[in-house]
Amino acid sequence: MVIGIEAQRIFRKKRHGMDMVAIEMIRHLQKIDKENLYFIFVNEQEDPSCISQTENFKIITLPKSPYPIWEQYHLARAAKSYRLDILHCTSNTAPVSCPAKLILTLHDIIYLERLNLNEGTWYQRMGNLYRRWNVPKIVGKARKIITVSNYEKNRIRAHFRLENGRVETVYNGVSPHFKPASEEEQAKAREKYALPNEFILFLGNTDPKKNLKGVLAALKPAYQSGLPLPDIVMPDFGEQALDHLLADLDALSIRGKIRLTGYIPNQDLPAIYSSAKFFLYPSLRESFGLPILEAMACGCPVITSNTASMPEIAGDAALLVDPFDPESISKAMVELMENAGLREKLRQAGFGRPPLFDYLQGAKRILGLYKEIHKN
């Protein structure tokens, strides 16, 4: 087989969830498949250290351009010129016209469930518009749709009225470098990012689904009343966006309790997770929730949501809250901060969750799908 994998963003410097999932899928396919020929299509190579070429895995840089043009024109042309048997698009969208058999990884359909066209950054709004145009056109053309949780599988099937067997769940996994960091590694990370000895960690972005507004609404009464909560660390947030939200909530008084670090590279995250008192992840909607497992693998207790995919991923190893209720979030934070026994219980339970989600098994399932699609 000649297989193309769309991995447009994996070499950008600031990699995020879908980028890391694509990287790990490719790495594990390289381990198990020495026979078929793969072309990995990327946009540019700012930081190409994450993937290396092998004898049967070739990296192809297509002309740099805005994503819709890159995908609809350059990727479609490459599928034809490289005579692909299969094209696997890994990040929700795909060329509308594709000469190869198409497999689509559809991480979520959040952008189809609500308009939210005036929420998030300009870049996020444009991305949602493109997905709203593209995904309904390609779902019917894809020979197989892969998604990342049973929750999302059911959402996709219901939304598009797809028959059983068209959508497959292939769970994400946890990269092996996510493990408890030593005291020395933690101290270096705290010094590098100017962090206190005790802190809460919140990972998200300006996408409304990440629930930054709800988190700030939960923190406001807790901090203003002097409850025993340490500072909260928020990587990858801009000060202007944060201050705007604080002003909307009349919560500028708690600004001094919030530490902004800027972007933290994936390799530094284990030491940050390991240093945190607990990890706060009360997202409104996720298709998987990879940071939940990353935190657990590092021995960090987790608070997450009782909605969407998060209970499926966290199991009984996290404290679950109603993400739409700031008081529920606030109470959970205080309870976890005051109860060292509960933190240790969640910490130990958390170690048992990541082994259930394995990239190698996922790669084996994906290779099996390639073979199945190629025969039919």
Automatic annotation (TrEMBL):
What broad taxonomic lineage does this protein's source fall under?
A: Bacteria, Pseudomonadati, Bacteroidota, Cytophagia, Cytophagales
Sorted keywords for this record are: Transferase
Xref: InterPro entries: Glyco_trans_1 (IPR001296), Glyco_trans_4-like_N (IPR028098)
- Organism domain of life: Bacteria
Report the residue ranges that make up the Glycosyltransferase subfamily 4-like N-terminal domain in this protein.
17-176
Q: Which residues cross the membrane?
A: none
A single Pfam family it belongs to is: Glyco_transf_4
- Put simply, this protein is called Glycosyltransferase family 4 protein
Instruction: Enumerate the spans annotated as Glycosyl transferase family domain.
Output: 190-350
